[in-house]
Design brief:
This protein has one domain. It is globular. A two-stranded antiparallel ribbon has the order 1-2. With 366 residues, the chain is an all-alpha fold.
Length: 366
């Protein structure tokens, strides 16, 4: 690992396609994990024999990647208050508009023929859901968007990064140190918060460390010329494989922050170091999947849930579940359809919506 004067200048101009590929892979992991969960609930069968139970680690990957992308993209904005407005507007546009569209669609779908459950929530819960204020995850899954709890962590991380932008070093460093100290104490079980204190659990959750892992990865690759990118990548992949096996077989009861967060940080460092050291040919399809990952993440549960409920309404459950091959093909079909709908939503809704909002932002700032 060598410190080079030109490294940060080189990093600023380098487009990292592998990070986009990783985002697509993370969304695919979540699709497979949630597919298994929805199949178990709706059809009393596991999605592809539950072999992708570790797919929830895609959320850990998203958190690490988010920390990396934010620090990598905005590290030069730290302690520059003039950058605050642009940062917060970009983050707002990235998260909320398409989320509001999908959430509204989910609420409207509760009125259709495929929905038999009743939803009990008040105006306060509805407002919290739209603003991504933390609340009961069971309520989020049953009445709103189940994945929205992770977006609350994203928003909180953006707000913490705003402190780095708005405050001078001598102010934000003690705040960050205190925050991390409480997180570690909570992680070790020394400090415990009331069960229903959803905001406190979010503020001091160990999951916040995964954003820090991503930011550390961005710091290392932007400050140092890292050799042996391929080796680091393989080490990260090996550790992740061990963690996936451990999770599936329930061998050791370890935190996902340790078992998945750290391997993903190593994977990210290795991938970026490799891409900086040599020219890689990467499939445009994989890059596109990464571009569409947020839409896929938001819509996949909705799609799989309604496809399985349609099967129930049509009386095809016995036909699909009696033959393992037919059921496996149906499971794959569900995952593929969820990915296709997510990609279509990105192309025809998320991307145009972002383009319109960015143009309006430019006009207002001009």
């Amino acid at each position: 690992m060598q410190n080079t004067a030109n490294q940060e200048k080189f990093v600023s101009k380098k487009k990292l396609n592998l990070i986009q590929v990783f985002r697509g892979l993370a969304s695919l992991l979540v699709v497979l994990a949630h597919g298994s969960l929805i199949f178990h609930i709706n059809l009393a069968r596991d999605f592809l024999s539950d072999i992708f139970s570790f797919g929830g680690s895609g959320v850990d990957f998203f958190f690490v990647l988010s920390g990396f992308i934010i620090f990598y993209t905005h590290r030069k904005d730290i302690a520059k208050q003039i950058k605050f407005r642009g940062f917060i507007l970009k983050r707002f546009m990235r998260i909320y508009p398409i989320y509001w569209v999908v959430l509204t669609g989910k609420l409207l779908s509760s009125l259709n023929i495929f929905s038999s459950e009743t939803h009990q929530y008040g105006l306060i819960e509805l407002i919290k859901a739209y603003l991504l204020i933390p609340q009961d995850r069971v309520l989020l899954s049953s009445s709103f968007l189940g994945v929205s709890w992770t977006l609350s962590y994203e928003i909180f991380f953006y707000l913490m990064f705003c402190l780095l932008i708005c405050l001078k070093h001598n102010f934000f460093l003690p705040i960050i140190f205190t925050w991390l100290s409480i997180i570690f104490l909570n992680f070790l079980g020394i400090i415990e918060f009331p069960k229903h204190s959803y905001l406190l659990h979010l503020l001091f959750s160990e999951l916040n460390l995964e954003f820090i892992f991503g930011a550390l990865a961005a710091y290392f690759v932007s400050k140092y010329e890292i050799s042996y990118g391929s080796l680091i990548l393989y080490v990260g992949l090996f550790l992740y494989t061990l963690s996936a096996i451990n999770y599936h077989e329930k061998i050791l009861p370890l935190s996902s922050v340790v078992t998945f967060g750290l391997p993903f940080m190593i994977l990210t460092i290795g991938a970026v170091a490799l891409e900086m050291s040599k020219s890689l040919t990467i499939s445009p399809t994989l890059i596109f999947l990464g571009d569409a990952s947020y839409s896929i993440y938001l819509i996949h549960g909705f799609v799989i849930n309604h496809l399985t409920k349609a099967v129930i309404k049509l009386g095809m459950v016995n036909f699909l579940t009696q033959n393992s091959l037919v059921f496996s093909l149906f499971a794959i079909f569900n995952a593929v359809i969820a990915l296709m709908v997510g990609c279509a939503m990105y192309l025809y809704l998320e991307k145009p919506l972002l383009s319109i909002m960015r143009r309006r932002l430019i006009i207002r700032n001009s």
